[in-house]
Every structure is written in structure tokens, then in C-alpha cells.
Amino acid sequence: MDYARYIVQAGDTIYKISKAYAVEMAQIIQLNHLKHPDRIYAGQVLLLPVLATHEPTDEEIPEPNFTYAMWLYDAYAGKDSELTAVTTYLYQAVLLDRPEFDALLRPIAYDELQHLEKLALALRHLGVDPRYGSLSSGHWVDWRSNFINYTSELCVLLDINIADEAKAHREYLELAQRIPIPEIQCILTEIAADEERHYYLFCQAKQQYCGECAPGPSLPPCSPPPMYTPIETPETPGTPEMPPNLPGPHEGGKG
Q1: Are residues 71 and 188 in the same domain?
Q2: β-strand 133-136 against 45-48: which pairing, if any?
Q3: How far is CA 124 from CA 146, 170, 181, in A?
Q4: Do the domain assignments include residue 233?
Q5: Are 199 and 166 in contact (CB under 8 A)?
Q6: What is the mean pLDDT of residues 125-154?
Q7: CB 79 within 8 A of CB 147
Q8: How many domains does the chain have?
Q9: pLDDT at 24
Q10: Which range of residues forms the domain containing residue 21?
Q11: Composition bias, kind Low complexity: at what positions (predicted)?
């Protein structure tokens, strides 16, 4: 196939080009080996997986912020993500098969499922497709079942869950600081508060059931992560506008 050559114009993004030529963003990224798809520049030549005679469509193209979307994809359906958390905790509930662990793990899994929905709506708010996967080194990676933590030993399992929840709490607060869109900041700080609560629940379970268990992997001590505070809307010039005619982060969702 003779690929079309496209010269990047000022203001172009991979998303805008993909919509104009009706191709997938992942195809453009992979074909051009783009390690940083958010850093294309005017004058750069890109190969497009279309015939050289193909003309761009005339439809108006909503402009998402691709960098923000890449960050959210990792939290949404990357290796350490909400989708991984949902499936891991449900697996653990079935595996342990005891009422007390079912009562611990299933409500947390359902919380993570609501987080998944909220992040999907945030991705739509940015104008991208909330498919299950993430971008790694410029390449799209579909979510995989081997991302699930299949550990079966109770105390090791709880240690890993504690570490994962503390990490998620920190990362959501960092994302809320980095993405200057109030609707998305609200979602991220709400999720961070839930992850903090999950952290404490797993800590309590470890103290209750693992007092005499062999130590698990070396992890930070079971101390509270920093408390979060709601983030005020930053007065930053040039805040990206929301694409028109796309659902806002709370439309149609349970959260």
C-alpha cells in the first residue's frame, strides 16, 4: 500500500489528523513510531495508512487534549488500572470464598467499577474513545487478563492490595493537579477519596487476619496516605475547551 504523506500544520494533533482522514490514532502512532504522540510539530512529515489520493473529510473536528487522555487511559485500563482492580478484587472474593472476605472485597470491586465508568465519561469529555487499553511508548496496548493479580496467599494478597491502593491514591491526586479541567478534577479527587478508604479497609483486614502470618513482599509500612483536599479551579490561561456535543463526565453515569 502506498501511504499518504501528511505535513503537520500548526495546531494539529494526532486526534485531529485521525478524524480528518478517518483512520485510527493507534495506526498513525504505530506507523510513524511516535514515542511521544502529543509532541508532533508543524512541518513534521507523517505517513498515513490511506491511499495517497485520499482527501480529508470536511466534518468539524472536536479538539481533545491528547496528553490528558493518555494519562487517563493508564488509570482507566492500563496495567495498574481501575479495570484491573475490578477484576482482581472479584477474583479474590471468589478465590477466598469466605463471607468476611466477600463482604470486604465485593463492595470495593463495585466502587472500582464506578470509578471505571467515571473515567470512561472523562475520556469522552476529552473527545476520545473509552476503549479498554492504554498507550505505552507510543503504541496502543489492549487491556489483558494477565494484568490481574492472581496471588492466592491471604497476607501477601492484602499487602499487595494495600500498596496498590496507596499508589492509586497518590496518582489520582497528582492527576487532579495536572489536569486543569474542573469537571475531571472533581472525578479524580472523588476517586482518590475512595482509594484512601479502601487503603484503610485493607490495612484493618491485614491487622485482623495476618498477625501471625509470614511477612509478604517488602512494602511501605501501613501508615495513612496523605489526606486529599478539593482542588480549586486554576486560573490558567489557555485551558482547553471541551469538545461540543459530547457527554459531560456526570451525564448518564451512576457517579
Answers
A1: yes
A2: unpaired
A3: 27, 24, 13
A4: no
A5: yes
A6: 87
A7: yes
A8: 2
A9: 87
A10: 4-48
A11: 229-239
